[in-house]
Amino acid sequence: VHASLIYKLGESLIADEVTALSELIKNAYDADAKFCSLTIDTNYEEIINEISCRGKIELADNGCGMDLQTIVNGWLTLSNSPKKRMKKEKKTTPKYHRYPLGDKGLGRLSVQKLGRYMQMITKSENSYIEYTVTIPWGDFLKNTTIDQIPVTINERSVEDSKSYTRIVIKDLINS
Predict the structure, then answer these.
(1) Cα–Cα distance for residue pair 166/61, rounded to 1 Å
(2) How far apart are CA 111 and CA 104, in angstroms?
(3) What is the DSSP letter of 15?
(4) Distance CA 170, CA 44 (A)
């Protein structure tokens, strides 16, 4: 599959930056987060892979976080949404008994509407392993196939047992 297909999906499904941010915030709500913070820094500058990147958005929550299986089979697998099943079976989230807002499994495409580079740092409750997922969203516009996009997942041990997810988007499209 040509990599631009993913980009085109996001472009056609996510109307604008406000919708993109809303989709990501809804993910925090669906993850039973008690808080979600959003920081936008249009003056931020960094060199990533020898490319000057400007602007940063950071979204952090204290929701349920994700383990490796959830990352691979859920977050990285487009259109695979357990939330759709939850809605159909009238199930709620375990902690705050919320009905999920998302259900299409496409909200993660919101990131590409905002920036060209993303890192997601996440950890599930009572786990001592934190995962960092890196996606160079800008690469989906290159003339290549999807299997050539270097999506990486790194893990490291941490001391804290609390759950969280933090999404950092860099090289903003409209900074």
Answers:
(1) 6
(2) 15
(3) -
(4) 9
* Interacting residues of 65 by C-beta distance below 8 A, sequence separation 6+: 31, 122, 123, 124, 125, 127, 163, 164, 165
CB 4 within 8 A of CB 139: no
From CA 154, how far away is CA 129, in angstroms rounded? 10
Q: What is the pLDDT of residue 157?
A: 98
Q: Could you give phi then psi for residue 163, rounded to 5 degrees?
A: -95, 155
CA-closest candidate to residue 120, choices 175, 76, 82, 79: 76
What is the C-alpha separation between 70 and 76, in angstroms, rounded?
9
Beta bridge pairs of residue 52 = 47
Spatial separation of the C-alpha atoms in residues 61 and 59, rounded to whole Å: 7
Predicted confidence at residue 105, as pLDDT, reads 66
pTM of the model: 0.92
Q: Render pLDDT for 105-125 as a digit per residue (tens, 0 to 9).
A: 667 888 989 999 999 999 999
Enclosing H/E stretch for 166:
strand 164-172
Sites in the chain below the pLDDT cut of 50: none
45-50 contacts at long range (C-beta below 8 A, 24 or more positions apart): 46/170, 48/117, 48/170, 48/171, 49/136
If we measure between CA atoms, which residue out of 19, 22, 95, 86 comes closest to residue 63? 95
Please count the CA atoms within 13 angstroms of the CA of 7 that sit on its side-chain side. Answer: 18
